[in-house]
Specification:
Elements: E1 4-5, E2 10-14, H1 17-31, E3 35-36, E4 39-43, H2 46-51, H3 55-67, E5 69-72, H4 80-86, H5 95-103, E6 106-111, E7 129-133, E8 142-146, E9 150-157, E10 163-172, E11 176-180, H6 185-202, E12 206-210, H7 218-241, E13 245-249, H8 250-258, E14 265-268, H9 270-284, E15 290-295, E16 301-305, H10 311-318, H11 328-345, H12 348-366, H13 372-375, H14 389-405
Parallel strand pairs: 1-3, 2-4, 2-5, 5-16, 7-14, 12-13, 12-14
Antiparallel strand pairs: 6-7, 6-15, 8-11, 9-10, 15-16
Helix pairs in contact: 1-10, 1-14, 3-5, 6-7, 11-12, 12-14
Length: 406
C-alpha cells in the first residue's frame, strides 16, 4: 500500500511513562506503515522540560499556533514526590495549563462509548461532551493563610492609581484562609465562541451552567456574556441547524444531564469542567476512554487523551511484566489530529485513514478484546480476551488494514 502523503505538518508532543511507550507503539504499528507522517517533534517528557527550563513546552505551543494542529501524549505535572523521583530542579507547571493559556483555548472532553461496557447512568445513549473553560478561577487564584484576628478587604486600584472599590471580605476573629479569583471578559467571550462554533461543527446543543443566583457578579458575568455572544453571533446559525442553547444553574443542569439520553455539550467554568469531565468519564465507563481536544477561537486544535501517564503499568512494564493498557483515547487523539490536518488541507485520503484508525480500535473492543480497565467492567461472558499491549495493537492493526482495504 502506498503511504498517504501529508501536505502540512502537525505538532507532535511526546510525553511520559507508559503513555510514552504506547505513543511509540501506536506510531510504529498503526500510523507509520500507512502514512508518510509529517510532524514537528517536541519532547515534553519531564526530563526534557527540566533540562530546557520548560522552554520546550512554550516552543510546542508556538508550533501548534503556527501549524494549527497538534497531538499530545500524556505528561507528568510534578508534585514533591515526583520532584524527588526525577531529581527535578523545581516543580514545573502543568504543560497543559501552559499550552491552554498560550492558545486561549477551550477543552472539549468526550467519552468513547462501547456496548460491552454499560454506562452507570442507564439512560445515557450518546456521549456527553464537557466544554471546560481553561482559564482563571481557582487555577490562577491568590491565596493567604490568615494567622489570626484581622480584617480582609478586596481592593481595586485602576491603572491611574485611583482606588475605585474597597469591600470588606470578612472580619476574622481567629485563624482562617482567604482566596481571590479572577477572570477576563475577553477570555469568557472566547470560551463562548469556541463552544458555539464546536457545537455547530458536531451538530449538538449547548448547555451552559454556573451559579449566578449566588455569585451575582462573577458567575453572572459568564451568563450575560454567553448570552450576548449567542444572540449577536450564533442564534441564526443555531436556528438554521435546528440546535438549541440553554442556560441553567449548575445543580439544575447536573440533574437534567443525569436524566437525559446524552448527546449535548455541557459548558462549564474551569473547576466545574475539571470535576465534571472525570465524573462523566467514570460514569461512562473508564477515564482512559475520555478524548480531549483543545480548541482556540482563532482556529488551532490540540488533541490528546484525557488520562494520565498510567504509572502503575509503567512500573510493571519496566520490570518486564505484561501489561494491558487502554490505547483508545491516545489512538483517538492521533485520529483527531490527522483528520483535522486532512480537513484543513483538503486531503480526503488522510481524513479517511483517520476515520478508519478511530473505528479500528473501537471495533476490536466491541469484539470482546478489552484492556485491563474495561475487562473488569464488562460482563465476563462478553470478554473474549484481555490482550497485553503488543497483541492488542496487532489486533487493531489487522482491523485497520481490513477497513482500509474495504
Amino acid at each position: 500500500m502506498e503511504k498517504i502523503k501529508m501536505l502540512n505538518a502537525i505538532a507532535e508532543l511526546d510525553g511520559d511513562e507508559m503513555t510514552h511507550v504506547l505513543w511509540g507503539m501506536i506510531k510504529d504499528e498503526l500510523i507509520l506503515p500507512f502514512v508518510a507522517l509529517n510532524s514537528e517533534y517536541y519532547d515534553l517528557s519531564i526530563q526534557s522540560r527540566d533540562k530546557t527550563e520548560d522552554a520546550v513546552t512554550v516552543k510546542a505551543a508556538e508550533a501548534i499556533k503556527r501549524l494549527h494542529v497538534g497531538v499530545k501524549c500524556a505528561t507528568i505535572t510534578p508534585n514533591l514526590q515526583r520532584q524527588e523521583e526525577y531529581h527535578l530542579k523545581k516543580l514545573w507547571k502543568s504543560p497543559n495549563a501552559t499550552i491552554r493559556a498560550m492558545l486561549d483555548g477551550t477543552v472539549f472532553r468526550t467519552p468513547i462509548l462501547i456496548s460491552k461496557v454499560k454506562p452507570v447512568v442507564s439512560c445515557w445513549k450518546k456521549p456527553i461532551t464537557i466544554a471546560r473553560h481553561a482559564y482563571g478561577d481557582i487555577y490562577k487564584a491568590v491565596e493567604y493563610r490568615v494567622p489570626g484576628p484581622g480584617k480582609a478587604e478586596l481592593v481595586f486600584t485602576d491603572e491611574k492609581g485611583h482606588e475605585t472599590s474597597r469591600q470588606t471580605v470578612y472580619d476574622f476573629k481567629g485563624p482562617g484562609v482567604l482566596q481571590a479569583m479572577h477572570n477576563r471578559d475577553d477570555s469568557i467571550i472566547s470560551f463562548a465562541r469556541c463552544c458555539f462554533t464546536y457545537a455547530l461543527n458536531v451538530k449538538q446543543d449547548v448547555w451552559f451552567s454556573s451559579k449566578d443566583t449566588i455569585s451575582k457578579d462573577y458567575d453572572q458575568t459568564f451568563k450575560l456574556l454567553f448570552q450576548k455572544v449567542f444572540d449577536e453571533e450564533f442564534r441564526s446559525q443555531f436556528e438554521a441547524a435546528g440546535l438549541h442553547y440553554r442556560y441553567a444553574l449548575i445543580d439544575d443542569v447536573a440533574a437534567k444531564v443525569i436524566r437525559s439520553e446524552g448527546g449535548m455539550i455541557w459548558a462549564c467554568k474551569n473547576y466545574d469542567g475539571d470535576v465534571m469531565s472525570d465524573l462523566i468519564a467514570a460514569a461512562s465507563g473508564s477515564l482512559p476512554m475520555m478524548t480531549s481536544v483543545l480548541v482556540s477561537p482563532d482556529g488551532n486544535f490540540e488533541y490528546e487523551a484525557a488520562h494520565g501517564t498510567v504509572v502503575d503499568h509503567y512500573h510493571k512494564w519496566r520490570e518486564g511484566k505484561p501489561v494491558s493498557t487502554n490505547p483508545l483515547a491516545t489512538i483517538a487523539a492521533w485520529a483527531g489530529a490527522l483528520h483535522k490536518r486532512g480537513e484543513l488541507d483538503g486531503n480526503e485520503d488522510l481524513m479517511h485513514f483517520a476515520d478508519c484508525l478511530s473505528k479500528a480500535g473501537v471495533d476490536v473492543f466491541e469484539a470482546g478484546y478489552l484492556s485491563e480497565d474495561l475487562a473488569r467492567l464488562c460482563d465476563p461472558a462478553e470478554l473474549r480476551e484481555m490482550p497485553e499491549n503488543g497483541r492488542l495493537l496487532h489486533l487493531i492493526r489487522e482491523r485497520l488494514e481490513a477497513l482500509l482495504s474495504a
